[in-house]
Design goal:
Number of strands: 3
CATH architecture of the largest domain: 2-Layer Sandwich
Order of helices and strands: HEHEEHHH
CATH topology of the largest domain: Double Stranded RNA Binding Domain
Distance between the termini: 81 Å
Structural class: mainly alpha
Number of domains: 2
Radius of gyration: 26 Å
């Protein structure tokens, strides 16, 4: 990303210098060059009123070597949408390259493990622990007066 990446006349504040630098190093590590990106700006749609419908703030990025296309219209600001589109492109490219090791894949796997049914033995053990806890709690109660 060059200095021209962040124009001076913008609606919202651009991403911080640290964030843009981190994105630049991530793009270099993944082998994404600005020359390989085909960037087009399209008119937005959906909620946001007249402003979103009049300005071309929706960013469409196409990475020619990988064939990945990303569209971003999360913000009203063109600058932020350009940043987010590049970030999404890096995420998808990393997911494709790293496969099982990618963060998105790991998060999906964690959710899958959490939703998986317990085995009979694990379920019996859990219920036995619950019963033992209830007995322990019952012993803490004050004795009832007769």
């Amino acid at each position: 990303m060059s200095a021209a990446f962040f124009p001076t006349n913008m609606d919202a504040a651009p991403p911080s210098l640290a964030k843009s630098e981190a994105l630049r190093t991530r793009m270099e590590r993944l082998g994404v060059r600005e020359e390989d990106l085909v960037e087009t700006f399209v008119r937005g749609g959906g909620p946001g009123g007249q402003k979103i419908n009049k300005t071309s703030s929706c960013v469409s990025l196409f990475h020619a070597p990988s064939g990945i296309r990303v569209k971003c219209q999360a913000e009203r600001s063109l600058t932020l949408n350009r940043y987010r589109a590049r970030f999404l492109l890096c995420e998808r490219l990393a997911d494709r390259i790293e496969g099982e090791k990618s963060l998105a894949r790991q998060a999906a796997e964690k959710i899958r493990r959490q939703k998986r049914r317990r085995s009979r033995r694990a379920k019996a053990r859990m219920l036995a622990e619950k019963h033992a806890n209830s007995v322990r709690k019952a012993l803490r109660r004050a004795p009832e007066a007769e």
